[in-house]
Amino acid sequence: MIKKLILIIACTVVLNANLNVKIGNILGEEAFNTHQNLINYLFSNNSSYYLSDGNINYPLVTKKLQDNGLLKLKYPTTQYIDIDFRFIGQQKKSLAIIKDILKSLGHYYYFTKEARFINESFTWSIKLKTEAAINPLKLSQALALRNSKIENIIREGSLKWHYTINTANSDIYRAKDLVTNNQLILKKSTKAFLIKIDTANAINIISRSGNRWHPNVVFYDNELNIIEIVKEDSLQKSLRLDVPIDTKYIKIDDLYSLANLKRGISITKE
To answer: Residue 17: pLDDT band by 50, 70, 90 thresholds?
Structure first.
């Protein structure tokens, strides 16, 4: 009984120490030291802030920090900050996901400093012009929608951040489901139509009345590598296409303008 109690206490101490390190990495050393008593109180039930795989539950941790006014992200003036995104997952898909998320969070002004492979993982380093650092809570929530997650955050001073992001099991957000559905009827879109598909021999695409469709269809594998491209310079009302082996995503667009598909399309798989 005593040994069991000692083991529980030891495990609790390790969990507390690890969680404190992670929180310190998010807030920065100065802010963590200033608010350490409050942090200890807020995260006293430390085990609830871990995922089943032993990693920190960043959405839950960052929400607690934000709700209690501890997550300070705004700068006095517009700043250039450095951000390293280290991805556990395939390069093209990871980049597509993070760029889409940055746009959705209102971060448009950045340029790539470096893209490199280190220890079988891909790192994308950018310089971002912003009035506030990327909100890690909003980032973690956006990643969850894409079946991805943050595995580590390190705040280095006030102008440099490091993120480790797992996209190994990711999905492309807003890709329409032609996996469980046999047919999709899609209305006007501001972007090319993106379809997720599996185990289909062929698809039939019907352009709705009022469109002027010049087909531009791209087949991708699960890692967003292009498998095949089909282009037609002439107007088409419908198109039947064989689905290449290993296709997971299909992009349907117009060669000249998405406005030519303003009435939408319907897609049926065989």
So the answer is: low
| 192 touches 177 (CB < 8 A) | no
pLDDT at position 7 over 50: no
Separation between Cα atoms, residue 131 and residue 189, nearest integer Å: 31
- Strand 193-196: give its sheet, edge to edge: 176-177, 193-196, 249-254, 215-220, 226-231
pTM for this structure?
0.84
Integer Cα distance of 124 and 126 in angstroms: 7
What would the pLDDT profile of 147-158 be if each residue is shown by its tens digit? Answer: 999 999 999 988
The residue with tokens 């001073």 is 157
